[in-house]
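Exercise: predict the fold of this chain.
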Amino acid sequence: MKREIINKLKSIVGKDQLTTAPEELLCYSYDGTGREYQPEAVVFPVNTCEITAIMQLANATPFPVVPRGAGSGMTGGALPVAGGVVIALSRFNRILEIDEANQVAVVEPGVITGDFRKTLEKRGLYYPPDPASLKFCTMGGNVAECAGGPSAVKYGVTRDYVLGLEVVLPDGRVIQTGVRTAKGVVGYDLTRLFIGSEGTLGIITKITVRLIPHPSAKKTFLILCNSIKQATSLVAEILTRHRPCTLEYMDRTAIQIVREKLPFTLAENTQALLLLEVDGDAPSVAIQVDALQEFLTAKRDLLSVMQAEKADEIDALWAARRAVSPAAFNLKPHKISEDVVVPRSRIPELVFFVENLATKNALTIFTFGHAGDGNIHVNIMLDKNEPQEVNRAAIATKALFEQVIKLGGTLSGEHGIGITKAAYLPLELDAASLEVMRGIKKFFDPNNILNPGKIFPAERHAKKTIDKITDGRL
């Protein structure tokens, strides 16, 4: 990048808030995918005016700009694939307002999601979205990817709580979207357009969210099953009779890699488990627990139903659940992590297909995730230094996606498309829909400077990639 541009950026944010040092650039070159693309500079703006000036400069020059939160994304959404400048939003870390009377809060995008939830809890308020990375992921990244989490089965995902946004457009203009009221139907719903847009349409600088009262009681259960089929079939049965706030699933491999973290000793023949919680006020939770225990007692073929009574037991269960993804690297040095979604009633079909897929392609593949809303995380383990294994993993990924679409599902429930799924987008979206989406991107960002290379594959490249996978050449 030309020295002239670097100097102009320094004049905007201050010389101490820009870096081009190679060792520091490296820290902003990767995300949860493990892939690396080094930027040419990283800037650390502190207010909307600075971002406006950066975008005006980038649009006029032009050069690529990539907004970045904590870099915990799993599809490459924050990777500077075209070089350029990364805008690190770590200094946008303030909770600007908590309006208890109207149950509304305003935060900056760099606020850590878990910290925000803890602050609200002290005031008896609740922001339900709870991605696995909540201890370090940020609110801006959650909005950009429309993050979910275990609580989505009852409470929904990020888009269900965002009322409005402040956004800097690629040309530097600032817009306010949405409302801070319970209702509002004035004009197009631009707020929803930006949620899940992966930083390709604008840079979010303020987020207005709705809140709800914090549940005063919660009970946690661990259900051990003697087969994956039993566990996945039980999910649909539970949801037709009960309304848990979380209903998580783990197969035998997922259990094995975090077994030592679990607070209970599991039966040796445990093939799958469900982690289930109910919440609400104390009287309603008591009613829910009685109904649930009666239902589960009638299922005499279950291995065990255990209730976590102590806080440290509950914490240990969730620590184990959230450790599944990082612990997977004990199996193989690399993984392809997919977050597909199917109708809940078809989870058994999906899991059965994945088991056969693993056998057919001689791969280690395991499943876990948010069974309550059909969002199953499929992890394909591999060693990228083994070309044949890489080939088989690519073939398995395409087959997985094709099966998910056949089952009436979608390619991503919460991770987004980024770069890792871009080539497969035509499997789910028809040509007309893709054309409309490309048109929206071009309208907002005619110079394609904001997070270029994400979501939409180059058409010839996408076809070439899928053809190679089909032929077994990738």
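Check your answer against the key: Confidence is low (pLDDT under 50) at residues 460-474.
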